[in-house]
Every structure is written in C-alpha cells, then in structure tokens.
Amino acid sequence: MKHFIICCISVIFVFFAHFLGISILFHLSGAFYQTVGSLLLFTLCYTGLTFVLEPAEKVLIHSMKLLGINRRITVFAAEMITIGCLWAAIYTADELLDDVLLTTSAEIMIAVSFFTIDKILYPRQRSGSLLY
User: Are 81 and 8 in contact (CB under 8 A)?
Assistant: First the structure.
C-alpha cells in the first residue's frame, strides 16, 4: 500500500510539473485559453496523444536506422521525426479543444521546447547503438 501511495504521489508530481511547463510555455508564446480547466484538459489530451504517437515514432526511427544511410543524416531525420510527432500531438490537442487557441508558430515553439527539455533531462548514451 505504501508503494502504491508513493507511485501515485510521483505521478501527480510529474503531471503537475508537466502542466506547469505547458502553462509557462502558453504564457511565453501568447497562446489563449479560456479557463485553467481547459488548459488542464489540453494537458491531459496532449499527454494521451503522445502515448498514442510514441510507438509510431519509434517504428519510424527504427526504420530509418535500418535503411543504412549516413549516420548524421539518420540522427537528424530521427530528431525531426521526434519533433514532428510532438508537434502532431500538440496540433491535434489544439484542434480537438475549442477553448485553447494556438498559432502554428506557438505549436512549433512548444514542440521544440519539449524536445529540448527532453534532450537536456534525458541525454542518450552513445554506447554501441545509433540512436537509443
């Protein structure tokens, strides 16, 4: 029971930090949302969509590795696929909710910001594998 409570508190903390990050990025980009509840719903929708798009992103990146192209081109293409999937999740969440209005440049800025934060917090190790 204690382990379950610790896991629940951890999940709540991570989601709150993600929600706080999205709200800060919304303020920086000048995005519009009607209520905090709509921003919370956007965060839930975005998080769910990233879980749905993650397997497709991994398959695309793995297929890029199998093509046998130049290493730098493959790494660049994999990073662009990652940013594209992040943007697709943000774009879809924005289109699903009428209470949140994002410009395309704000969507791209948020996607690149999350990509950069991911690269800073979770650097990939260079042991043997090409990307992961």
Answer: no
Return the domain boundaries, the chain: 1-131
Spatial distance between the Cα atoms of 115 and 20, rounded to a whole number of angstroms: 16
Max Cα-Cα span within the chain: 51
Question: What's the rounded Cα separation, in Å, for the pair 107 and 109?
Answer: 5
Each residue's pLDDT, cut to its tens digit, for the chain (132 residues) gives 888 998 889 888 888 888 888 888 888 888 888 888 888 899 889 989 999 999 999 999 998 888 878 888 888 999 999 999 999 999 999 999 988 889 999 999 999 999 998 899 888 755 444 444
In Å, what is the CA distance from 87 to each residue of 7, 22, 48, 104?
Answer: 29, 13, 14, 9
